[in-house]
Amino acid sequence: GDSVTQMEGPVTLSEEAFLTINCTYTATGYPSLFWYVQYPGEGLQLLLKATKADDKGSNKGFEATYRKETTSFHLEKGSVQVSDSAVYFCALKTQGGSEKLVFGKGTKLTVNP
Amino acid sequence: NAGVMQNPRHLVRRRGQEARLRCSPMKGHSHVYWYRQLPEEGLKFMVYLQKENIIDESGMPKERFSAEFPKEGPSILRIQQVVRGDSAAYFCASSPFQGGGTNEKLFFGSGTQLSVL
What is the DSSP letter of A12? Predict the structure, then answer.
């Protein structure tokens, strides 16, 4: 079945460091791919998305490129801030009208000043 | 416009008791999804409901779990005769659309943490 694999955390970085959180997927067809973020005490929020191969999603300085050849959707940010501390979830949604999202386990990021 | 409201935030039950988790979708949203996050796991889809209808319950355990979304009031996820393995975070999400497309209109609540003693 469909699945998402994320790099395990926790990840701890200093402010202004470069961030990469790896995400690979297994799915039939051509899924849409998402990154969600959960700040402490809040619900999951959509961070960025990509719906087809080679699409790049971007938001708040974060980027991820849909790589069909490597079935990956790695999240990157050039310079993290303390306010980026959160849990990040990679997710996919398959075609065919299904509303189900398939999530990775989440990666906790802590950014220290 | 208030977000998706889930209550309670934390729920403690003893084995064999019933747990009722509530989800009030955003105003104007008629589609509700429930997900469960077990410790060290990702969120897993449980059920998708529209007002007064269960559309997809393929992720619901066959026994003890039920969900409803009445015409009036919040969506309820009910777990009867809870066991320790039911301890998890339960998240609700709502959308105004059936086809979520790129999910810009899909909003999640903060979750209910269920602990079974």
Answer: E
The answer to whether residue B10 neighbours chain A at the CB level (below 8 Å) is: no
Tell me what pLDDT residue B100 has: 52
Q: With cut-offs at 50, 70 and 90, classify the pLDDT of residue A40.
A: confident
Question: What is the distance between the alpha carbons of residues A65 and A87, in angstroms, rounded to a whole number?
Answer: 20
Phi, psi (5° rounding) for residue B40?
Answer: 65, 15
Of A41, A93, A101, the CB nearest to B110: A41
**Chain A within 8 Å of B39 (Cβ-Cβ)?**
no
CB contact under 8 A, A106 and B42: yes
Q: Which amino acid is at A49?
A: K
CA-to-CA distance for B107 and B27, rounded, in angstroms?
11
User: What's chain A's average pLDDT?
Assistant: 92
Q: Do A100 and B48 touch (CB under 8 A)?
A: yes
HSE-up (13 A, CA, CB side) for residue B52 = 2
Helices (H) and strands (E) in chain B, counts: 0, 11
